[in-house]
Amino acid sequence: MIRFGCIDFGPNEREAIIDLIGPSDPQLTMGKRVYDFERSFAKWLGSKYAVMVNSGTSALLTALHGLRINQNIEGVGKVIQTTSLTYCADWNALSLSGLSWEPRDVGDDFVMHLDDYDPALDSCRDFLSVDLLGKPCRVTNLIDDASEAVGSKLQNRKMGTHALCGTFSFYVAHIINTIEGGMVVTDDNELYETFLSIRDNGRVCTCPVCTLKTQGKCSKRTNSSSIERRWETQHTGGNYKPTEIQGVLGLVKMSKIDMICKRRHDIYKRYFEEFKEMAEESDEYIVPLAYPVKVKDPTKTLAYMEKQGVECRGMFPAYSAAYKNAYRISQSYILVPAHQELSDNDVEFIINSVKTCQ
Predict the structure, then answer these.
(1) Low-confidence ranges of the chain (pLDDT < 50)
(2) 51: Cβ–Cβ under 8 A, 6 or more apart, which residues?
């Protein structure tokens, strides 16, 4: 079976986990490996700060809550606009945040479009953009959900860095994976501090390395002597902390992330030669999660591909039939594998199998 995604769990990952759990008293909760992964990912991405959490949905929730606390989302009657074609995590996070939001239709390239959007002038609306399947979305200012676009670029900047903050998912089927995991990135120091606090139940203790232990003092400790500092909170937060296992797997992935992105981009180009879907504009670089193919009968094609030994998926759902382009796409496309473990022969077999079924 040619799988839809790849686990990407080889000797290096196994060795890293064995090294982690080898000591008699290993630290398995969030610690140095998570911090090192955050720094490595931020540097590679071109962002000042990165905060790892336990899933991509947690990253969205952390970003939305942090923006609200820091009053980046404000104004009576203000509505966050997002895509009508995506995985449900984006809609769920917006609904759970309690903020007002509405979907917008997508273009033929699968991402949100607004006829009246001007990135140089549009400061009166907030957007949660989604780079679906790795295709850069140009409508962005607040949050860029680049979970499916690790390594994709727009105007030579990696996705996730075009908005006030970016979010990522490292789920097992995604471009890089830590089994489960997510990341929030930003260049704003105040937001960074807020994200750190929200991740850990809103605590005031957010330093990556505890200064009370290393310097004998804590600049964030309050004057309240009746509360043990570890219990003091400054925000309402959640327990979104990742484990050191996720951190150490992330560090292994950083050693090969450029290779992963290049291989996926090469596969994307071969698919585009045949199917002409999701075009890469002159100022873009697409690293696909999967590749969309328009077919006559998605149900029939998916069943045929399974018999051929190729695991495919249906297109992501439209929010509702009211969003005509999103709904049309959701009903007429399938997603074929585009991960880095596919051989050239695998890619050709997938192409020929899809074409044979049409």
Answers:
(1) none
(2) 38, 62, 183, 184, 185, 192, 195, 196, 199
